[in-house]
Specification:
Mean pLDDT: 89
Strand content: over 45%
Order of helices and strands: HEEEEEEEEEEEEEEEEEEEEEEEEEE
Helix content: under 10%
Shape: rod-shaped
Largest sheet: 7 strands, mixed
Number of domains: 3
CATH topology of the largest domain: Immunoglobulin-like
Amino acid sequence: MPRLLSTLLVVALLGGTAAAFAITQGLKIEPSPILAPHIDKVFSPVCDCNSRVATIRFRLRKPDRVRLDIVNGGGGIVRTLVPGLRLRRGTVTYTWNGRDDKGHFVPQGDYKPRVHLTDQHRTIDLPNDMRVDTTAPKVALVSVAPRSVSPDGDGRGDRVVVRYTTSEPAHGVLLVDGTRVVYTRRQLEWSSLDWNGRIGGVTAHPGVHQLQLAAEDRAGNLSAPGPSFNVLLRYVALSRDRIEVKAGTKFGVRVSADAPFQWRLGARHGRANPGLLVVRAPARPSRYTLLVKLGPNAARAAVIVRAR
């Protein structure tokens, strides 16, 4: 009798194991009731940007009563997006604004969408966590060169290069006189950007301009602009705008440019290199204009010729 009972117990255990294996294999073979899940990986509910909500999208293989919850890292439900609605087969799309069921923003961290299918008695955690990120990146200026540029298209000193680092992968943002002019395509922690002297598609006026750096992370958090730094925009410039000289004598004036330029004073004209321009004043006392020109850009100075 004891041997018979032992045999029956072994047979029962084997049968149970076989049944459990068959059920497990059947579940593996059965197609998933949810197809093509898409979940935004990171977003910032506090930013004024397109990524202030997370999109949750999937396809139902067949109609069912669906409950969609947002759970935290410990598995606790923080928000119920769908309380158990009868949905048809096809694409299902919802968004989460980063708030819990009481309307408060959830703490920064990782969350996951969980789908419960009532008719099929299935609960499925969708892949890919959603990262709630509410912390703006930090940006630090590394170098600026050159500090004086002439964006006249001649290939010499046409743009300023700004190198920077960020506390996390982020887009670099450059503001000039308070206007955003550069937004980098790539998100890197060590990168550079350059400014070609244009603001809003228009070439900026000559003179000193105030530049600032900011950074925007993957979630859309934008840092506050950093300390400002100055860059001089020049095309061709004279060191003086009024020159007094005696008739027929030579005088000099410095010309700031990045290439040889044309000059004209009365009937005289010529071509010279940047630096000190030395010319002879007209022989007749009068008021003249010294014109220096480089491409489409020009600078002028009044020349007052007095009798010797």
